[in-house]
Protein 1
Amino acid sequence: MSLAFAYVSITSALLSGLLSMVMGARPFLLKTVSFTLLGLCGVFAIAGGGVALLTGAIETDQFILGLPWVAWTLRLDPLSGFFFVIVGLVTVAVALYGPGYIREYEHGKQPLCVLGLFTGLFVAGMLLVLLADGAFAFMVAWELMSLASYFLVAYQHQHAANRRAAYLYLLMAHIGGLAILLGFGVLAGAGGDFTFAAMRARELSPAWASVAFGLALLGFGMKAGLVPLHAWLPEAHPVAPAHISALMSGVMLKMAVYGLIRFTFDLLGDIQWEWGLTVLILGSASALLGVLYALMQNDLKRLLAYSSVENIGIIFMGLGLSMIFLGTGNKVLGVLGLIAALYHSLNHALFKGLLFLGAGAVLQRSHEHDLERMGGLIHRMPFTAALFLVGCISISGLPPFNGFVSEWLTFQTALQVPALESGVLRTVIPFTAAVLALTVALAAACFVKAYGVGFLGQARTRHVRHAREVDRGMLGGQGLLAVLCVFFGVLPTITIDWLGQIPQMLLQATLPSATAQGWLWLTPISPTVASYAAPLVLLAILFAWGAGYLLLHPRRRRTPIRRGIPWECGFGPLSNRMQYTSTAFAQPIRRVFRPVWRVDEQVAETTDPAQPLRVTGIRHQLQIGDRSWPALYEPIARWVLGAARRVGRIQTGSIRTYLAYSFFTLLALLWLVT
Amino acid sequence: MAGDLTGWLLALLQTLLFIGSAPLLTGWVKVVKCRLQNRAAPSVLQPYRDLRKLFRKEVVLAANASWIFRSSPYILLGAMVLAAAVVPLIAVHLPTAVIADVIVLVGFFALGRFFLALAGMDIGTAFGGMGSSREMSISSLTEPAMLMAVFTLAMTASTTNLETVVQYILDQGLVLRPSFVFAILAVMMVAVAETGRIPIDNPATHLELTMIHEAMVLEYSGRHLALIEWAAQIKLMIYGVLVANIFFPWGIATQATAATLLVGILAIAAKLALLGIVLAISETLVAKMRLFQVPRFLSIAFLLALLSMLSHVILETGG
Amino acid sequence: MNLQLLSLYEQAILVLAAMVLFTSFALLAQTRIANLIRLFAWQGILLSATTVMVAMVSKQHHLYISGLLTFVLKALMIPWMLNRLAIRLDIHRKVETTANQTVVLLGAAALVVFCYYVALPIAQLSAGITRNVIAISLAVVLLALLLIITRRKAISQVVGFMSMENGLFFAAVVSTYGMPMVVELGVAFDVLVAAILFGVFFFQIRASIDSLDVDRLNRLTEAQEVEE
């Protein structure tokens, strides 16, 4: 049943891509048919995934493609079902949003049909990754996903920066792919076969298991954008069209999370706590550095991309905690950590999708992606602004929205450290929890900045001043995600109940206490340890708000509230240039965490020649770069170039030399054979 | 999990008492401070009069204020009332206390602050942006320190529910814990920073380049301003009650009888009066620090919280 | 370990141990010479208080004397001497620029965890009720070393050295109820003499290189090479 839905879903994604290729000449038809099919794909993905997730049924099938000795086995179990739902939800939103959004590209240089084709292939690739039940099928689907998204990143290839970003993405995706392939190779070498079933059944020494884990972490970490492997992410995500950014940031990164969970929890099995510690520390570093870099960005989409690094970090923290607890034999706590990570994956898909769609709406209407040139959009685009606010609150981890729940669960997992034997772990884990607290607080600052500078205040440019609200379809796409953000924030107990089949399948354990007190109360360990009643919180906030409003609002006076000009210190009218900018907003934090960035700040004062002390103009230049470039990538790039040059020396160009190479290789092989 | 009707009634009364008496604490601190500085003190009830005056005044909005600006005071007050509802004031075992644990409490503060900072940016003046930027920067440094201190408590009592922590400490009797010494200091430093008291911010300044909170709410008037002021007073009270009732919970009512509740009220009044005196003394002795010294102050708070956690692990749990 | 099982005095010893550790951190965080010396005096006071507490718990009477000695020497005499030196050298109000403070403090915290890890096997051998304090005293020693490494001014290095001695003394008091009286007296006077000698050296250093910055001492070798 679930697998049938999945097939329908993948078929409609492929059809959506192929049909848009056919209908390239008719934009209207292309938009309706291709996005309807994409929406259908999303709906069926939710249906198929939902059935698998809720019933816990595992369906397997063998696909006709594939080679005689490596079959394509497919399987839909609760874990892939859960990620199916994530893909489906965001795809539905994108399908609603897309027709309105790509109007901008109708008269562009690039044909729309390419966009449609690769969007379909991309979604189909992601769904196939989830269905794959063997290394061969997995890698083919993985490459389909990576390549399709490469073409989407490179869609607007007239800008050199976009081509560079796409190339970087392709390069790193392939290094990551290679690491994953090697990881599977280690497992297949021990299991004798490329199917996941054989890998699960294999015997592996702890050292080899660690090697396999390290390779998988490298490969999936690269795709997920873990620090310091994140360099491609802030380059590639912003340059794609907004609905593709939403899919990439919201969903594709989750494929890496899925891959790591599948590889570690399902295929490897016996988890060692050292792996968990590695993942936890990498996750904390990603979370903190991601948000610090996000804070310094002025480009809205870049800011969102760095914030994805942060959220991936939080997800990995949950996974790391889970692995530490599982490795030390605390199964129930391991389940809690896993659920926290899964929950945050879902949440991040929703709010990051929402925010990217919102950023796209702003981009379409004002042609601005720089925060410092926006401002006051709440007056011009009220609905988009309201929906974007929902995303901002959710991502900042504020109750009672969804981001808070998963972060709260992560905190709760981290606080269960007294269950551990090792005193060192007992100190390291609360410290990472403090890092998480810092991250969450900085994320709030970051999104106050993004929203405050972008949507509030006064418009800074003419385009922004004349921006208009986007159409209903685009609002519908964002609205769907916003409603889901609230839903998963207010009803966490039900959600955790739905997730229950995943740990049941992977770890043969569940979290019975979490839902034991009814749908109103979330009690992950037990009611006395911690409890959170999100519906009551929402109710109480609404009640307090309503009571305050009713009691205080003057009903007698019918006159509208007086409006006045704001206080301008007596210096004449305020101009929009007097507002705090994005750079100014982040300045105190830049000062505190200065060593984190590569800051190049230059202030040049021009003075009056007659009066040297009188400054007539100040020129301020600020460039904030990513430290991972000079510290990691540039040395590697130099080394690779150097090595290539050295290897290049054997390329003499003379045909006799090449024949000599072949001759000596032949001799060596013959000698080896005997 | 939900208690009976009397429990809910009692919880509602406690919350009302909490938010009702919050201005009194602010007034008390002001009176003590005036006495210490040899000035004539206003009445303890002065904050109530100020609030009443503000509630009656007409609201003037800036020309381009959006709905964010108008709704933020209500959201802020709502978040603070909710936070007040989950902190045990005079009695434990109330049904509201399990709605949210201490992490959610920190989340409520963050929610209120988020909207207030947005409201500061809404008008588009330099002051508002400045206040918002500073408030968010400072709070992002206080939050980890606060949570770290709270984590120590949570690890000691193996719970994050405030009333269970209180109950645990009551059950244990008088135990000297090195971790608590540091945690209490860290929480107090965080409280000073979060509630905008000297040396971080001066609640009495207006229109200076050093101000933080006041810069953010500069454009507010009338009932909106009253709500914000009231919320700030509630926040101060919450921090006071947290310090008083978690580290020194003795006196709090564990059963809902009239006598124990009366004792509870008297106990918390005495503790808060004492804390108010401590705050007033420290505000008198310490000068307001430069804005760029604040991260240093907060890093010490974080260090204290970290030490609290370390000493908990090393000294209190053993090998 | 269950804290409730300990007597109030023993709990107080733990609190004092934590506070001694805190003074070590504070020494690392403090850049002003005068405050550094004052903090060192506080560490001495805490140390002597701990000694007296241990004396009460263990009923070892010689520890009272040793506590008194600690108080007189480490809380009064040596700080007073250092302070006088600082005033005479006119570095009393100097602020010392150090390497990145936050990194040093975080490193210090990591060091404490490391000490805990290292001291765990030792602590398990020890039967004393205050065995956990061994990790703390080791941490005090190592933090003092860190202080010496990160500072430039000779006088703060001396404070670090003295604080290191405090850590050793602390370990001796809480884990084995103090050393024999003779040894303690000897060490105490050694420290005192060391403090006096350091004072003499300060003047010598300043006279020869015109600064108390020990990084300048590097030049001595270079100067020799030039002469040769």
Note: The radius of gyration of chain B is 19 Å.
Protein 2
Amino acid sequence: MIADIVLTTLINGSTYALLAIGFSLIFGVARIVNIAHTAFYMVAAYCIFYGTHRLGVPPILAVLMAIILVMVLGFICYRFFIEPIREHEAAVLIATIALAMVFQEIVMLIFSGDFRTVPPLLPGYLEFGGVKIAFQQLLSIAAAGVILAAVWTFLTRTRLGLAIRTTAQDREVANLMGMNEARVAMLTLVVSVALAALTGAAVLPLTVLHPHMWMAPLIMMMAVVVLGGLGSLKGSFTGAYILAFSEAMVVFLIPKGAFLRESVALSIMILVLLLRPEGLFGIAFEEER
Amino acid sequence: MKRPMILMTALMAFLLVMSIGFPALGADTIKIGVIGPMQFVQGKHHWNGALMAQDEINSAGGVKIGDRKFKIEVVKADSNEILSPTDASNAMELLITREKVNFVVGGFRTESVLAMQDVAMDYRTIFLGCGAATKKLCDRVGEDYDRYKYWFRITPFNDVFLVKTNFIHLATVGGIMRKAVGIEKPRVAIVGEKQAWVEGMVKASEATIPKLGLEIAGIWRPSQMATDVTAELSAIQRADAHIIFTIFSATVGVTFAKQIGDLQIPVAQVGINVEAQKEGFMEATGGKGNYVMTLNTYGPGVEYNELTKPFMDSYVKRFGEEPVYNAATRDAIHMLVECAKRAESLDSDNIVVELEKWDEKIPTGRLKFNKDHDPIWGPGYLTGLGVQWQDGKMVGVWPNHWKATPEAPEITYKGIKPYKLPPWFIQKYKK
């Protein structure tokens, strides 16, 4: 059972981590609470489905097309719907909710509410301790690991990564040092939605597509971000695996209460916040200068 | 100046005639609201069935009620009920108050249908249910007849009988397992989504499964919208289950079947899986839905009576797919029209009296209501089918030489084929 819990934690934790890091990035850099983040993940998943099933292109090409399309979509959304109201955080939050709903309805119109799946990139399974594990699950864990490592390298080893981290630490100082903060924010949003698209690509063969598939991960992603500390990438990473672990424990230890997995995870988040309001790795909020 | 005045007067007179004339034309139309989740398969089939009925009645010249001739007009309402019971009750309110429909057919999700039922009853509008199974919907008729008498369920039969039929399927598959691979007491994992209609079924399963010579391996209750159940599946494998008794109406039915198929987990899936009742199930599961067995109303090539084949054929010809049970809106509309004809009135109270007397064949069997306006289940009435996905196609597998009691006659509908265990199951357990 321990192996099952570890495996489940790794799969779900990696998905949450990928989504939460993207969400955390744009919040940290531009203070944009992008509720539409998981809707970009849903759009990417449908693009991959469309590419592989309707256009008949190879999966890798479909993934690339989906990432580019979602990045362009992210750019358009930022330029026309977010940037003009960026200084009003509540308005941005509401605008991104509206964007997510618009994406959902458009997908519903094009693909209907029917459920869809895509075949695994790596079919087959292996038996481990009497339990079957699909190769695709292992591939998804590996893909998530590679993507997380690439993000880490990008943020710590590139000039743009440095700019993003600097802006996240202090927007005003970054501005005073001559950095174009608005441009960094725009690029960060594009990077963050690309991460959402990559998450869609990594987990797509394991899941079922439907136009509302963005809602459940949104709740967990926000819980992860709050638990880890708003804007903290390290916090998002750690929080993702903590919540995924708690979910796995619920399913394995209380089978009748499997539907409570999200509630238990959110309760853990509340408990941590009661003890440490800034989250695990967050910095206590200070007044804006 | 005189000429424009004459023109203006003529125009006003024309508009006046039109405004009076149209309601007069409208009075010869029976408007029937069709309510359902129109963006989803269930709603689409609600609408398809209703369109069929409308065209069949109108092309036959309409219906004569008393000394007046009426045409049928079906009005579509998207209840969005899978996501929001509030949207559903608003949609019902609009159908009755704005569209001024005479009757309503449809509904799918219990929580939403309960809310819609109350709105319809407030307006004393007949509402024929074609989707929700909860017994409570009809219990309300018995509890408060004067208020709820305008509600009748056409399909499916209620959850008590659904579960009863499922237990028969479960016992049948258990018997096949004993015979094929020698498992004396197959272990059953009960997996029911977390929804209101499942609660009673899980309790009944706990009480009944041991009496069927089967053993309970555990109970799992995933979310109905779960898109990943690998954790549950690992736990079910650990529990050494041979059969998974599924109680699903939503996404989780696809997720479950797909992930079991991906991993070729050696279990037989029996129960209700609404997604597996649809023609798109194999596409939805990426071709991994084989060997899933579910209760269903229609099965390709299966005939309950002489009305089944003509209905199925014309449905497939018109819409290019097999109907799901919600397409019984067709029967519902035909019944409403026939009862209005017999009552010689469009008055709801008079039609209720005629519906209560209804005892006739429809394409899914013989329909007669009990005192709570619930269809009677059993041999000779409605029984439903057991269907299984075999080689990418849905086939009817139950009733196959079924005897309700030792004395009862054996029932096998035309077109039924033998049930198949998954080959990887046989491979694992064959001694």
Note: Chain A is about 70% helix and 5% strand.
Protein 3
Amino acid sequence: MTALLSVRGLRTVFPTRRGALAACDGVDLDIDPGEALGVVGESGSGKSVTFLSVLGLVRPPGRIEAGEITFDGTDIRRLSPAALRALRGRAMALAMQDALSALNPAFTIGTQIVETILTHGLVRSRAEAREQAVALLRRVGIPSPERRLDDYPHQFSGGMRQRAMIAIALAGQPRLLVADEPTTALDVTIRAQVLDLIDELREENGLAVAMITHDLGVVAERCARVMVMYAGQVVETGPTAEVIAQPRHPYTRGLLASLPSLEDPDRPLHAIPGQVPDLARIDAGCRFRNRCPLALEACARPVALRAVSPGRASRCLRAEEVA
Amino acid sequence: MSALIEARGLAKAYPLARTLAARLTRAQAPTVRAVNGVDLDIARGETLGLIGESGCGKSTLGRLLLRLHNPTAGTIRFDGQDITALSEDALRPLRPRMQIVFQDPYASLNPRRTVREIVGLPLALHGKLRRAEAETRVARMLDRVGLARAHLDRYPHQFSGGQRQRIGIARALILKPEFVVCDEPVSALDVSVQAQVLGLLRDLRAEMGLTLLFVSHDLAVVAHLAHRIAVMYLGAIVEQGPRDAVTKRPAHPYTRALLAAVPRLDQPGAARKRHVGGELPSPLAPPSGCPFHPRCPEAGPRCAREVPRSVPLEAGHRAACHLHDGGVT
Amino acid sequence: MSAAASEDRPISPLRLGLVRFAANRTALGSALVILGFILVALAAPLIAPHHPAEADLFRRLQPPAWADGGEWSFPLGCDGLGRDILSRLIWGARVSLLVAAMVIAIAAAIGTMAGLAAGYLRGWTDTLISRLVDTLLGFPYLVFAIGLMAMMGPGLHNIVLALVYKEWVFTCRVVRGETLAAREQDYVEAARAIGCRPLRVMLREILPNVLSPVLVVATFRMAYVIIMEASLSFLGLGVQPPTPSWGSMVADGRDFLVDAWWVSTVPGLAILALVLSINLASQGLRDAFDPRLHAS
């Protein structure tokens, strides 16, 4: 099955006073139709920038310096800004973390959904668009959708706002939903509801989902495959269950060892020593080596992402020894 | 041995602004009950984990216990002494014994003060030490939390989130308090940094024999540090007990819902569990009877009529639910 | 974002702001112009070619040096009484800058204290101060000042007083707003948790954080005060002759606007230049120190 989204060698750079900063550097990824890919990383890992680049939302002075991005067979880096804009929202949609700032507070939710539907030319009249908007709100589980269509974002609770944002994202009937920490700001019980919703939508419409999060638990439950990012690079990929049971990169292992577990609360936590390197001052070698218990001299040279078993890749020279 | 902290019937209600008409007719001001009749004990040396979602009142409760807010009802005893109505001046000598660590590492340090001044402020107010001695103590405290002497003259913006949180911890502990309220101390930190700070708290707790109230929405984090857990919903404690009892044998439907909603690493791709629906009700219009009943899968007619009282289950484990008090009909 | 801690030397927020300010060329240029004015004013006794009150009726309304009938020893011409305009301009700078500096300094001090008290203590203190602020704001500035000057009589100290009466209100409003925001911050609550008394919290914790906006407001208002002083002097209510003030110099030239335009225009341009520089510099200050634009 050919991938819906395919990225090779993506490098996005932001100029800063201290030098050019490659927020994501040499990222490769594939997402198949209807698949849920978990993208895990902490601050500065480049997980958001990667997908903002795919969606063409990187603002100058940041820019994509290199890489191929193929969506549904089309090389989208060659598209004009207008064509990319049409693609975005129609075939690829974004649901962000903070719905309160992502939604325009000056317009009703209904207006924002209807505008999206009309912009993408999916219906013939405003009345039809409104009908679709109601159906969307109902689908995402917002009660009394006809009435709530005319409410403003601040009149919704956090969970409802997030659902509304997903409704807007779905208005264009996209094939790929990029969900950037969509539930981080929500309470645990509401989070579960919203994640359930995304799962249902995925199953119903064959929607592919890129779930960007720092929460390995969310990925463990909802995403069949996972991609771990650190300091702008992909360090490990593979089926989620396997990666968690047997990580093949010291960072992944360190991350798993540092998470408190509800099932085994007395398990001592092993914090990863040190800090994330300053992206403006890194060299070509492995970016994790100054915090890595397995580091060798060879790690000071560039390390490539390599396959360690079918479907699994790791950017570690000693991947086999990790777990 | 009596508890270090004892709260009975603690409540905090915020009156809302009334319209002029309402004021003229002396109508009752609508109130938001942030904390609604809480009883709790924290024994010396114990860590009580306080869990709940946003708006449940857990942060307010923590601040009430420190008398940073004033309760509108109920009593608080600290080491046997009733501190409910003490004036600020009378409280001042007690302050060194009870401190707080804040959630937001970016807002909890004065951006215009150096680390030396921030961590040294408690000493300057209470310590009566000479300058050289105070400086040594500050340096030693910084060392204890994993920062260097060179950091003394730097400003907060020169540090990462995890380091700022360490500075906040140093400030809270420099006077060697007995009781510390930790208000979501790791929620704003990256996952790998969380573990570092949690480890630090654990070590310091053991070293200094601290009594902690650990407030968080993250069950796994709380379970790691707490001896006992209390679960809050809409201003009331719905369940409390020893950690294992609450996490492995939850008695209240809300606790069960919370536990079910926590994603688990050891069951990847688990079949979707039935999650509790609905939203947190507005504190302005709390449900009648049991505050959880509109969302509760086990609710019955009695739950809308009667507020459940806290019933003992096993040793030290209590829940406020009609299921354990004669049934829901 | 979680970047590695800075390995640099301690960098206070003040220094950061100053560095940003210096990087802004417009702002830096304006600041230098203002500095130029200050130096000229300070050096008046040394650099003014003539005594500002020295009248020579033979030179009455002498044009500037580049026009017909002008001389280079009186570069900007002479006024209706034959006094050298350049010298009067230089000496007049003293009045403008001195009045502005005194008014702003006193108003900022009073306004900051009042704003801190109103914002932090709330309750009756806030109600009283806010009502006072609202009342004073209701009076039109110039009319108010004229009224006060009429009551108190002319003179430098009286101008300062008349202007301070209303000027403190602007600083007070800004400081009150900032204090209201700052008091909700965790670090203020931390100070209370440690047992700081309210006065200490206000002065130690909140004051350093509201000083940047005060600085910005102060420089921005300075331009206004200079114009107010010029207006009062223009109306004859300011410093009395023969002490030159740019405002009174503009007034002196009222009767000769067509024939001897330089008498009014030159001091008018000086006012313009100074006020413009101050506005540009204060904008630069705001950009440099505004925490919202430069969250670290």
Note: The longest helix of chain A spans residues 188-205.
